[in-house]
Amino acid sequence: MDNGAEVFAKLPNPNAGPAHFTVASEVATRELVVELENTLTTVTFDRQGCIYFKDDLSALIGEAKGIHTHSAGALERYSIGPLTSNELWSGTKRNMDLDRGPWKDPREYAEALGRNEMALVESHAVPRMNYYRSSQTKELPEDGIALLKKYIDVAPYLVLSPTDGSGYANVLWHPDLHLDNIFVDPNTYQITRIVDWQSACVAPLFYQSGVPKLCKKDGHVREGWVVPRRPEDFESLSESE
User: Fold this and answer.
1) What residues of the chain score a pLDDT lower than 50?
2) What is the CB-side half-sphere exposure of residue 54 using CA atoms within 13 A?
3) 30 with 197: CB under 8 angstroms?
4) Cα(204)–Cα(28) distance, rounded to whole angstroms?
5) What is the DSSP letter of 41?
6) 185, 3 Cβ separation under 8 angstroms
7) Contact by Cβ (8 Å): 122, 133
8) How far apart are CA 122 and CA 144, in angstroms?
9) Is 71 helix (H, G, I), strand (E, B) or coil?
10) Which SUPFAM superfamilies match (predicted)?
11) What's the pLDDT score for residue 58?
C-alpha cells in the first residue's frame, strides 16, 4: 500500500471445503496462533476440532463454548467446532449428517473417522471393479463395511491413554507445511509468516505428528546409523552448489 502496509488476501476456493466453515476457522486460527505467541505443541487443548471465533461458530451452529487450554488458560474469544477438512465435506458428504466434531475424548475422535466412512458406504457405495483385488469379481459395499467395523473394533486400542504423556495431548498442527507456505525475509532470513491454515485442527499429538513436506528428503534414504558428512570442500562451495 502507499503507506508501506502489506495486505494479504485469500479467496475461498470450493476445493478447500465448505466456504463458511473453512474461512471462519482459518481466520480464527491465524489470530489464535498470534495471540498464543508460542510454539504450537506447547499449548494443549481440552477438545478436538477446528478453531473458530465464538461469535462465528454461534452463528453457524447455534452453540459455542470458550476454549480452555492446559497451559494458556481460558481463551474466551475462541471456540472449538466441527472439522473443515475436505474429506468430510466433498461431494455427497456435504449434505450428510456426519460426526464432524468437536470431541472431548481421543477415542471418540478415532471412532468417528470410521463411522463417518461407514455412513458414506451405506448411503452411496455401489459394487465396483477393483483390479488390484480381482479381475473377475466386483468389490461390494459390504466388504468395505466389514473392514470399517474391524477398524472401529480396534480403534480404542490405537488410542494412547492419558498416562502416555505428551503423545495423548490435543495440539494445534499446521496441515500442509511446505516451502510455498513459509515466507522468509530475504535480508534477515527470518520467517515472517506462515500461511494456508485452512483445515488446521486440534487433535491428539499421536494422530497429528509427522514429518513436514519441507523436511522430507527426495530420493533414496541411507540405511543404518550413518551420520551424513559435509564434503571436504564445503566451505569453498558457492551458494548455488
Assistant:
1) 36-37
2) 11
3) yes
4) 20
5) G
6) no
7) no
8) 9
9) coil
10) Protein kinase-like (PK-like)
11) 85
For the beta sheet containing 66-69, the strands, ordered from the edge strand earlier in sequence to the opposite edge, are 50-53, 73-81, 66-69, 44-45, 170-173, 201-204
Angle, to 10 degrees, between the axis of helix 106-124 and the axis of helix 141-158?
A: 180
Within 13 Å, how many C-alpha atoms sit on residue 2's CB side?
0
The radius of gyration computed from the CA coordinates of the chain, to the nearest angstrom, equals 22
Cα atoms in the 13 Å half-sphere on the side-chain side of 222? 6
Find out whether 11 and 22 touch, Cβ atoms under 8 Å.
no
Which of 24, 75, 22 minimizes the C-alpha distance to 46? Answer: 75
Helix, strand, coil % over all residues of the chain, rounded to 5 = 40, 15, 45
Cell output for 178: 511446505
**Any idea which residue has 496441515 for its cell?**
175
Q: What is the pLDDT of residue 15?
A: 59
Q: Rounded to whole angstroms, how far apart are CA atoms 181 and 188?
A: 18
Q: What is the pTM of this model?
A: 0.69
Give the pLDDT confidence of 92-136 residue by residue, as tens digits.
888 899 999 899 888 998 999 999 999 999 999 899 888 888 889
Residues paired with residue 75 on neighbouring β-strands, in sequence order? 67
Q: Which residue has the cell 494458556?
A: 72
Q: Please tell me the distance from the alpha carbon of residue 11 to that of residue 170, in angstroms, as a whole number.
A: 29
- Cell numbers found for residue 41: 505443541
* Residue 98: how many other CB atoms lie within 10 Å: 18
Q: How far is it, in rounded angstroms, from Cα 44 to Cα 113?
A: 22
Find the length of the chain: 241
Contact assessment for residue 71 and residue 42, using Cβ atoms and an 8 Å cutoff:
yes
